[in-house]
Design goal:
Oligomer: single chain
Structural class: alpha/beta
Number of helices: 15
Distance between the termini: 53 Å
Strand content: 15-25%
Shape: globular
Radius of gyration: 22 Å
Strand order of the largest sheet: 1-14-13-12-8-11-10-9-15
Helix content: 25-40%
Number of strands: 15
Largest sheet: 9 strands, mixed
């Protein structure tokens, strides 16, 4: 039977699952053997979640361009040198710094990361690691060239669930997987219906915000509170929409477990209207190592699974999205943006038997948080699980979907030449222009 029939005819679906500890950014875990001298680039907003972890080390410098938005956090770093411009901070203090934690809008991830690596500093950067595909490939070149320890903040990559997914697939329990379905209830009016986005008329820049530094490499434009500190993620000059926000978490499970590599074609279909638009981005991955081609479907603006007969989600977190891998033998799925509770779609009796005869655990487990994993890489020499060898490939795949969304049509992807054949106008999305003074990494291509 086809996959939809399989889902529709599966009886007595078990509500049981492997319920794993929820990940909380900054949650206490196993510390590294020694404390690091850390510099924080970005301390307000999302950084409030990672700052508690950083305080277990030595914070020797902090940087934020928005003194009002970050005021509460900045006040807690008594006696710590404070900066607005990370370039100035690194010039003055790089000899006192071991590593940097970068928690800024997407468009400044790359220059901050490269500037740190050029000085031999280890880098932890939030997802997505970069804002365009050229940056992603250059970031990997830099990590190899400078020999630093790296990690991207896609916290689902440390979970038990993602390891179970790969172990079950590698053991042949799922059979051949030719289709993956993922979804999120998040969407962006700025992507689908520009006429509905927040009005971004020119406003007076707050005295406490260095707007020029906030823009960084992006061409100058007027200030709007809907850019900073507001909804920058939904405006492509600064963010990467729902794919960059949630796709880095949800799609990671399938991309890594199946070893998909890079897609060769991406389709995009916009539908819906008004204030509830939605879309479907379909990635086409070629066959690899005797495995069949795989379609990965990413739905945005979906409040429920886009298939039939999955058991209903029970919590608000589970209703945010999920992922399904449709195998010829078994169907794997989880709700939530991360694989915190992984399941197989099967009758109760089969599920109980499966849990009694689990395949061997072959992948090392991670203790503590994703930041702990990175710190151990620095102090102990272990390889962090989402280092740039892993996460820049995921980032490129995510950003290819963003290119298709921005183009508004299907694209073919020439992996070797890093281009969309027949569409040179998309080159500016693959390698975005930058303002004078913000060009990094060009030397790595010489």
């Amino acid at each position: 039977m086809n996959r939809r029939q399989f889902i529709q005819t599966t009886a007595a679906v078990s509500a049981s699952s492997f319920v794993l500890p929820r990940f909380a950014i900054g949650k206490p875990g196993v510390s590294a053997n020694s404390k690091l001298n850390l510099a924080l680039i970005g301390v307000g907003g999302v950084a409030r979640g990672t700052n508690p972890w950083a305080r277990r080390h030595n914070i020797v410098a902090v940087c934020d361009v928005d003194q009002r938005h970050a005021a509460e956090e900045l006040a807690t770093f008594a006696g710590v040198p404070k900066f607005k411009d990370f370039r100035v901070m690194l010039d003055k203090m790089h000899k006192e710094i071991d590593a940097v934690v970068i928690t800024t809008p997407d468009h400044t991830h790359f220059p901050a990361s490269i500037a740190a690596m050029e000085r031999g500093l280890h880098v932890f950067v939030q997802k997505p690691a970069t804002h365009d595909i050229w940056q992603s490939r250059t970031l990997l070149k830099a990590a190899r060239h400078y020999g630093v320890v790296t990690q991207m903040g896609n916290q689902g990559h440390i979970t038990e669930g993602i390891r179970l997914a790969k172990e079950w697939y590698d053991a042949g329990l799922l059979g051949e997987v030719e289709e993956v379905i993922a979804w999120t209830n998040r969407t962006s009016l700025a992507i689908y219906h520009p006429e509905h986005i927040h009005k971004t008329q020119k406003e007076v820049v707050p005295d406490t915000l260095d707007w020029d530094l906030w823009l960084g490499p992006v061409e100058y434009r007027h200030y709007s509170k809907y850019y900073a500190p507001g909804h920058w993620r939904w405006h492509f000059p600064f963010g990467s929409g729902a794919l960059g926000d949630i796709g880095c978490h949800t799609l990671d499970t399938a991309i890594w477990a199946l070893g998909l590599g890079m897609p060769t074609k991406i389709d995009v279909d916009f539908h819906g209207g008004g204030d509830k638009p939605s879309s479907l981005v379909t990635y086409h991955f070629p066959g690899r190592d005797g495995k069949p081609p795989v379609k990965v479907k990413w739905y945005e603006g979906m409040s429920q699974a886009p298939v039939d007969n999955l058991p209903a989600p029970t919590t608000m977190q589970e209703k945010e999205g999920g992922l399904i891998m449709l195998g010829s033998k078994q169907t794997f799925y989880h709700y939530d943006m991360r694989p915190n509770s992984v399941k197989l779609l099967m009758p109760d009796e089969e599920w109980r038997e499966f849990r009694r005869t689990l395949p061997e655990k072959t992948i090392p487990r991670i203790k503590g948080s994703i930041q702990d994993d990175w710190a151990r890489g620095i102090t102990d020499g272990t390889i962090p699980c989402s280092n740039f060898e892993v996460s820049t490939e995921l980032t490129e795949m995510i950003l290819l979907g963003v290119v298709a969304q921005r183009a508004g049509h299907s694209i073919e992807w020439d992996v070797a030449n890093m281009s969309v054949p027949g569409h040179p106008e998309l080159d500016a999305f693959i390698k975005q222009p930058v303002r004078e003074g913000w060009s990094y990494g060009e030397n790595l291509w010489m």
